[in-house]
Design goal:
The complex is a heterodimer of chains A (74) and B (635). By secondary structure, chain A is α+β, with helices and mostly antiparallel strands. Chain A contains two helices and six strands; from the N terminus they run ββαβββαβ. Chain A has a single domain (3-73), classed as Ferrous iron transport protein A (FeoA) (SH3 type barrels), CATH 2.30.30.90. Chain A is 18% helix and 39% strand. By secondary structure, chain B is of the alpha/beta class. Chain B is elongated, with a radius of gyration of 28 Å. Classes of the chains: A alpha+beta (74), B alpha/beta (635).
């Protein structure tokens, strides 16, 4: 079964395998550092299905949970 | 010489700009776009140069309108040199943009900014090595402390004189083969559009929409598609991912060659976030910060407003108006004075502390965190967390609130949020709510009005976001480190926004005020009442109320004063029923934003969408007013 970033609990580090969705979303996520092969960690998880705050390399980004569902991890 | 400032968001680019920009700074829109840039004249070594602050951009491939304009600007080669501002503590990621600037073949220098932050994170960068690898000068700076800025600019001017395009950095052999294979077919297009051919080829392989549209030959299109497919087949990822991943790897390798990182402990920023982003404490802190912010704005505002207004009405106005003979001239002059006083006395006392507070929250880095915290709730009505800011600001004054909607990237979000913001009761409308509903029906009813208002906003927001589905699914934003803001930059930003208010809104307030005086002078109240009679009749209000609605457009708080005048009594309850008071108040809140707000709406949204936004507000006002009337009949 494919595992998605939205299924992961906080403070676990995972590796991105691929990103679903159109070229626009892929390119935007890549710009923010979410490349396939990159290690990410969920540092904060918003309440009531809110957004996730991720640590990628040296910086933090927040993405909505809908987007996290499009990120397949290993 | 024209020096362009380019860099990723939060790199401190604008801080450098604001440090050197003079009072002659101007904000301009890119031709035909809502995207803005700022421009200023500066003196370096006794020569005057132009410095342009471009919108922050993560890369040059983006679909984001602001980033697109930045790229187009750089491609047009209007600037002689680019200063690539980099957050040194995020060097690896930032280099991805730098590599693309090299591909653009525009002379540029790297300003290694926030070098103190990098040292704190125990990142040691070998500047000479970085400069050698990139083939461009590298200069350290700490923009918020004003360190190194002159050196950055001097180096930029030198590099601009050299006119030497930076060297290209190589991708893997496999990708380079595809680039070389494509170049001969697109050479003609590259020349036609004055683009470097290698950059053109890379962007086409990367599925960049903009470059795609430049190719009108089907044979070449299918050749591009073939090369993309072959990249995808060999790497198991779409071609755009293949290229951006390689660029990412190039940046990482470069970083490893020029920088050393010792394992760092949890930063102060992360420790603060443990509190401010906590699922419980975070919301309490958010409430406290916003409450404190508004308390400050309102206490400073009221402290200044009253003495200023009385100074105008007793100290200045009689003297000025007394200068001309009684008659039309007096009316016009008192209109102008009232308008000036309205601007200075009512708006500025709230606007200035408000804008200082906003710049502080912005520069400290708290705004994206607010967006994170409230995203869950706004998501339910189809908006992102960032939209909360203009909406909250709306309770103060609609004018800066509407200007605040600029933080939203997409026009769709800006449109929805501005439409909603215009319906948030501003300080003037709050006065009406308190003085009419609060006074005659009781405080609970006034609170009820606020709650109904929020409910209506949620419904309208929900409907609008369903009618205008968005392209990107959900929020994507960087959460930057906390920063100590620089007083100079905060004040400069505030001054800049105040200046914008003076130019746009104040003029309109003065014109509106004069129009009001003329209406009074020529006594055309009857005609206005007639014109508004369809509305007043529909809502079950006395026809005499019609004039107050016009005044409500010109200056919201006047709606109530004119209501007293129109009804011929200050004891409203003797003429209007409780239902009528409620209907009137609800209608006034929603129907049309004040003329100053309309002015900034046109600026932010353009004429067509402003008309839509106002029409939506008007329809909502009629519907809500009618519902209140009907409910009143039943109860």
């Amino acid at each position: 079964m494919t595992k998605r970033l939205s299924d992961i609990s906080t403070d676990v580090e995972v590796t991105i395998r691929s990103i679903e969705g159109g070229v626009g979303i892929r390119q935007r996520l890549c710009e923010l550092g979410l490349h396939p092969g990159e290690r990410v960690r969920i540092e904060k998880s918003g309440i009531f299905g809110g957004p996730l705050m991720l640590r990628v390399g040296e910086h933090h980004i927040a993405i909505g949970r809908g987007l996290a569902k499009k990120i397949i991890i290993e | 010489m024209i020096i362009a400032m380019a860099g990723q968001p939060n790199s401190g680019k604008s801080t450098i700009f604001n440090h050197v920009a003079g009072y002659k700074t101007i904000t301009a829109n890119f031709p035909g776009k809502t995207v803005e840039y700022t421009e200023s004249k500066i003196t370096i070594n006794g020569e005057v140069h132009t410095i342009v602050d471009l919108p922050g951009t993560y890369s040059l491939t983006s679909l984001d309108p602001a980033e697109l304009e930045t790229r187009k600007y750089l491609l047009r080669r209007e600037s002689d040199v680019t200063v690539n501002v980099i957050d040194a503590s995020l060097l690896a990621r930032s280099l991805e943009l730098t590599i693309q600037l090299n591909e653009l073949q525009v002379p540029h220098i790297v300003s290694l900014n926030m070098i103190d932050e990098a040292r704190k994170k125990r990142i040691v960068i070998d500047n000479d090595a970085l400069s050698r690898e990139l083939g461009v000068p590298v200069v350290e700076s700490i923009a918020n402390k004003g360190v190194g800025i002159n050196e950055v600019l001097r180096t930029a001017v030198e590099e601009g004189r050299r006119k030497q395009p930076p060297p290209q950095l190589a991708y893997s052999k496999h990708v380079e083969d595809k680039i070389s294979a494509l170049i001969p077919s697109i050479q003609h297009y590259a020349r036609q559009h004055n683009l470097p051919e290698r950059l053109f080829a890379i962007k086409l392989l990367e599925q960049d929409e903009y470059y795609d549209t430049l190719i009108d030959d089907d044979r070449i299109r299918s050749e591009i598609a073939g090369l993309r497919d072959s990249l995808e087949r060999d790497h198991g990822q779409p071609s755009d991912i293949v290229i951006s991943s390689e660029r990412h790897a190039m940046a990482l390798n470069l970083f490893e060659r020029v920088a050393k990182v010792s394992k760092s402990e949890r930063t102060t920023s992360q420790k603060i976030d443990d509190l401010l982003m906590h699922p419980v404490v975070g919301y309490i802190a958010l409430g406290a910060i916003l409450l404190g912010f508004f308390n400050l704005v309102f206490s400073v505002g009221t402290m200044i407003e009253e003495p200023l207004l009385s100074f105008f009405s007793t100290g200045i106005k009689p003297h000025i108006v007394g200068l001309v003979p009684e008659g039309l001239a007096t009316t016009l002059l008192s209109g102008v004075v009232d308008g000036i006083a309205g601007g200075i006395g009512i708006v500025l006392p709230y606007l200035v502390p408000f804008l200082i507070g906003l710049s502080l929250l912005e520069d400290v880095g708290y705004l994206p965190r607010i967006a994170f915290l409230v995203d869950t709730f706004l998501h339910k009505i189809g908006l992102h967390g960032k939209s909360i800011l203009p909406l909250i600001l709306g309770y103060g004054c609609s004018v800066p609130a509407i200007m605040g909607a600029r933080i939203l990237e997409s026009h769709r979000d800006r449109f929805i949020v501005i439409t909603l913001t215009a319906m948030v009761p501003c300080a003037a409308r709050i006065t009406v709510i308190l003085a009419l509903v609060g006074f005659y029906l009781g405080a609970n009813w006034a609170l009820f009005v606020f709650i109904i208002n929020i409910a209506v906003l949620a419904i309208v927001g929900y409907i609008l976001s369903r009618l205008m589905p968005e392209r990107a699914p959900g929020m994507m934003l960087e959460i930057p480190k906390y920063h100590l803001p620089s007083a100079k930059v905060v004040l400069f930003k505030t001054w800049f926004r105040v200046k914008e208010f003076i130019v746009v809104a104040w003029t309109i307030i003065i014109v509106g005020s004069v129009a009001l005086s003329l209406l009074e002078h020529y006594d055309i109240v009857t005609y206005i009442n007639m014109a508004f009679s369809p509305i007043t009749l529909l809502l079950g209000l006395p026809i005499a109320v019609g004039t107050t609605l016009i005044f409500g457009i010109l200056r919201k708080e006047l709606a109530m004063i004119m209501l007293f005048q129109a009804l011929g009594t200050e004891n409203v309850i003797s003429v209007l029923s409780k239902t009528q008071i409620m209907t009137f108040t609800m209608f006034i809140i929603f129907y049309v934003p004040c003329i100053a707000a309309i002015g900034v709406m046109v600026r932010e949204l353009g004429r067509r969408d402003t008309v839509f936004a106002i029409a939506i507000g008007f329809i909502v006002a009629i519907v809500v007013g009618l519902i209140v009337r009907l409910v009143g009949l039943v109860v």
